[in-house]
Amino acid sequence: MLFLGLEQTIIFYIEAFCFGNPYIIGGNKKIMAKKKVVRSRKKSPAQKKIALERISELFRQAEKIHVESQKLADRYVSLARKISLRYKVSFSREQKASFCKKCSSFLVPGKNSRARTSNGKLVVQCLNCKAYRRFVYK
Ligand SMILES: [Zn+2]
């Protein structure tokens, strides 16, 4: 009687192993389910082109909206910066000069930024956070 019982359990285990009883080889299944999905970080040229389009559109909208809402313009700039980081695209010269790198606010000369020249450089000060940026003009 005891011998038969042992044999039955062995058969049960073999069956479980072959047909995948989740109660017995559950631990094994868990490991198999933990398959790591590795996605490529490299962005295709098409993606980069779309990113550049979106960035320029955001700057265009920020230029329009800053008269009504400076907050919204700042938000557009921070979104554009996020896109440029994710898709590894850089801003144009004009775009770079139109926002504060420290506080991401959209700079409008005479409103929230001050531009002066010194030692052959254009010094732009953000009046929100008082950060300076220097540009070489051509
Ligand atoms: Zn600033």
Runs in which pLDDT lies below 50 for 5 or more consecutive residues are none
User: Which class best fits the helix and strand makeup?
Assistant: alpha+beta
CATH superfamily membership of the largest domain:
Immunoglobulin FC, subunit C
Helix content: 40-55%
Shape: elongated
Topology as H/E string?
HHHHHEEE
Which ions and ligands are bound to the chains? zinc ion
Per CATH, the architecture of the largest domain is Up-down Bundle
CATH topology of the largest domain: Single alpha-helices involved in coiled-coils or other helix-helix interfaces
End-to-end separation in angstroms reads: 98 Å
Tag the structure with descriptive keywords.
binds zinc ion, alpha+beta, 138 residues, 3-stranded antiparallel sheet, single chain, 2 domains, Single alpha-helices involved in coiled-coils or other helix-helix interfaces, 3 strands
Descriptive notes:
There is one protein chain. The chain is an alpha+beta fold. The chain folds into 2 domains: 2-33, no CATH class; 45-136, Single alpha-helices involved in coiled-coils or other helix-helix interfaces, CATH 1.20.5.420. It has 5 helices and 3 strands. The chain has a 3-stranded antiparallel sheet, with no helix packed on it. A hairpin with a 5-residue loop joins strand 2 and strand 3 (132-136). Helix 3 (45-65) packs antiparallel against helix 4 (70-87). The longest helix is centred in the middle third of the chain and has 21 residues, at 45-65. The radius of gyration is 30 Å and the shape is elongated. The chain starts with a helix and ends with a strand. The model has no long low-confidence stretch (mean pLDDT 83). The structure holds zinc ion.
